[in-house]
Amino acid sequence: MLLKRYMGNLLLLILLFLLLAFFFLGDVFIPKAIDFSDYPMLHSVFVVFLGLFLESIPFLFLGAIASSFIQLFISEEIIQRMIPKRPLTAIFAAIAAALIIPVCECAIIPVVRRLIQKGVPVHAGVVLLVTAPILNVIVFGSTFYAFQNNPSILYGRIILCVLTAIIAGLFIHIFSTKDVVKEDKLELVQGHEHDSQSSKWTSFIDHTSQEFFMVGRYFIIGALFASVFQVFMDRSVMADIGQAPIKGTALMMGIAFVLSLCSSADAFVAASFSHSFLPGSILGFLVFGPMLDLKNVLIMMSCFKRSFVVTYVLLIFAVVFSLCLIAGGLISKGGF
Question: What's the domain range around 114?
Answer without folding.
Answer: 2-21+41-332
